Amino acid sequence: MAEVRKSAKQTEARRRAREKAAEFRARQDKLEQLAVDYFVAADTLDDIDEAMEKEIAAVRAFAEQQRSTARRNADDVMQKMLGLGITRAEVAERLGVSVRDVKKAPTERAGATSSSKAAQLPEESSHDDEANEHAGADERTSEHEGEHAYA
After folding, report:
1. DSSP symbol at 144
2. Is residue 89 a contact partner of residue 135, using CB atoms and an 8 Å limit?
């Protein structure tokens, strides 16, 4: 009879062990599914970050193109003003920029117009440029290095 008891205990113990194992397997399956969900979400985040970086790069390229066009237009306006025979100092004063910034504007297009203007008024324009050089030197000493209106 003691053996029957032992057998009944073993059967009951096996049943409880199987229940616990089933609970453990169910928990493991749930943890595995949660891990899968996590990895899907993490991969989605990576995809979103990649797409965002591409969009940012495209927006930056577009903005740089617009800035370049606007800078060219501003430089053209400065050159047209210089082409009308006014001094660099006056251009700078009218536009609220330093004389140094006016001098940085490309002079290829204004070179032809200002040289024809210089031929008409050779002494006045060379005298004005020298006076502007001195005014620009004073202005340069009072400005901070690296600050530009179009930089």
Report:
1. P
2. yes
H-assigned helices in the chain: 2-83, 88-95, 99-104, 108-120, 122-142
Place of tokens 């024809």: 116
Rounded CA gap, 115 and 89, in Å?
18
The separation between CA 32 and the C-alpha centre of its own chain, rounded to angstroms, equals 41
The span from the CA of 151 to the CA of 129, in Å, is: 24
The model's pLDDT over 71-114, given as tens digits with 9 standing for 90+, comes to 999 999 999 999 999 999 999 999 999 999 887 666 554 444 44
Q: How many Cα atoms sit within 13 Å of 7 on the Cβ side?
A: 4
For the stretch 133-150, pLDDT in tens is 444 444 444 444 444 444
CA distances (Å), 51 to each of 43, 46, 55, 59, in order?
A: 12, 9, 6, 12
